[in-house]
Amino acid sequence: MTQHTPPSEPIVREVRVAAPRAAVFRYFTDPDKMVLWHARAAWLDPRPGGEFRVDITDGHIARGEFLEIDPPRRVVFSWGWEGSPELPPGASRVEITFAEIDDGDTLLRLVHSGIPHNLRDGNASGWDHYLPRLQLTASGQPPGPDPWAIR
């Protein structure tokens, strides 16, 4: 009998990005922009049912599919790790909303749900590492080499 681990509480992060929301939205749907802050390579087909595949670091490839696209307000995709029996491709869900702030900045809210308890901290650390890189990149500042990808 296979024991099922119930999912943990969702990972919720909010960050302010010094760029218009239409520009920030593209960092989740354009492979050329995704590699600037989050990946070594990305294969993105931003339409419902389209491929979401991101080579984050050597041997760590996130894969799923786009579930909802509402430019520039919201993007939802499934998420999992290639080769992971605990969180296989498409097993969890990432929902990102982009809200305009009065001064032209964007409030990005990320909710990552469906993650097993024992993998929650690692996935939360990943978002905590990569969202500041997005903030820099989208505001026109180079984030520098990704120390996680150089190991």
In words, what does this structure look like?
- This protein has 151 residues and is α+β, with helices and mostly antiparallel strands.
- It has a single domain (11-142), classed as Alpha-D-Glucose-1,6-Bisphosphate, Chain A, domain 4, CATH 3.30.530.20.
- It is 26% helix and 34% strand.
- It is built from 4 helices and 7 strands; from the N terminus they run E-H-H-E-E-E-E-E-E-H-H.
- It has helices spanning 21-26, 31-37, 117-138, 147-150; strands spanning 11-17, 41-44, 51-57, 60-70, 74-79, 92-100, 106-113.
- It has a 7-stranded antiparallel β-sheet.
- The radius of gyration is 15 Å and the shape is globular.
- The mean pLDDT is 93.
CATH class: Alpha Beta
In total, the number of domains comes to 1
Q: What name does the CATH topology carry?
A: Alpha-D-Glucose-1,6-Bisphosphate, Chain A, domain 4
- Shape designation: globular
So, the CATH homologous superfamily? START domain
Q: In angstroms, what separates the terminal alpha carbons?
A: 38 Å
Q: How many strands, what sense, and barrel or not for the largest sheet?
A: 7 strands, antiparallel
Question: Can you list the strand order of the major beta sheet?
Answer: 1-7-6-5-4-3-2
CATH level-two architecture: 2-Layer Sandwich
Structural class: alpha+beta
Mean pLDDT across every amino acid position: 93
**Helix percentage:** 25-40%
- Indicate the proportion of strand residues: 25-35%
Low-pLDDT segments: none
Quick structural summary:
The protein is an alpha+beta fold. Helices cover 26% and strands 34% of the residues.
